[in-house]
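PT: before anyone asks, these are the final sequences, not the draft ones from last week. 228 residues across everything. Please model them as a single complex and drop the result in this thread when it's through.
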Amino acid sequence: MAFILRAFSGGADGVIICSCWPGECHYVPEGNYNAVSMMNLTRKLLGHIGINPERLRLQWVTASEGIQFAQIVTDFTAKVKDLGPLGTSEGMDENELKSKLQEVTKLIPYIKIVKREKLLLHLDNVEEYNNLYTSDEIESLFSEIPSYYIDPEKCRACGTCRRRCPVEAIDGDKNLIHIIDQEKCIKCGTCLASCPPRFGAVKKLVGESVPPPIPEEKRTIVRKKKEG
Ligand code: SF4
Ligand code: SF4
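LR: through. Structure below.
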């Protein structure tokens, strides 16, 4: 998904992914089934942000099908020419297109986590993948984007969430209340799952804004010295 969005962000008017036929891969038999699911999801996401999904095509063609490959590329090129330049044909100016593509690109890790079960489904009939993601589902993906927040009143600076965060989005130290950098956070939820229940300091927020971070001068935790 990231490669596709990068191609569109880089100015491609169309993207075609070619793969061997389902069941014919010698190396990773699940790969092209996963690709169908990913393509369907990506097409729905493109549609959601106002980009014509026909700009993205998945095509089965093996290395021995040279003539077919040439025809497929010729057809797709003609199709993309018909669709016109990306963005302006959709009624978007350059900045709007860029910001919409950036918005989805930033959400890729979150989307892949939320949709991981469907993305890994193996359906023998590839046509069934077409109905895998409903419009409501795609809509809720965007309307239910969570944010994670550390409650400064509850954080005891144990460091567990900071060590487990996969993208180093959490700032903190031994005696410093931890803070999540919302720009770096990929919304994986690991901090929520890893904060010890006796602290319960991480909150998942949906549909509400994240409170501003605690001021630096108030972040230090003064611990009582152990007696004896
Ligand atoms: S949700 Fe994931 S990425 Fe965001 S701060 Fe928590 S652990 Fe890090
Ligand atoms: S795991 Fe919980 S208590 Fe520990 S540093 Fe993170 S938010 Fe604070």
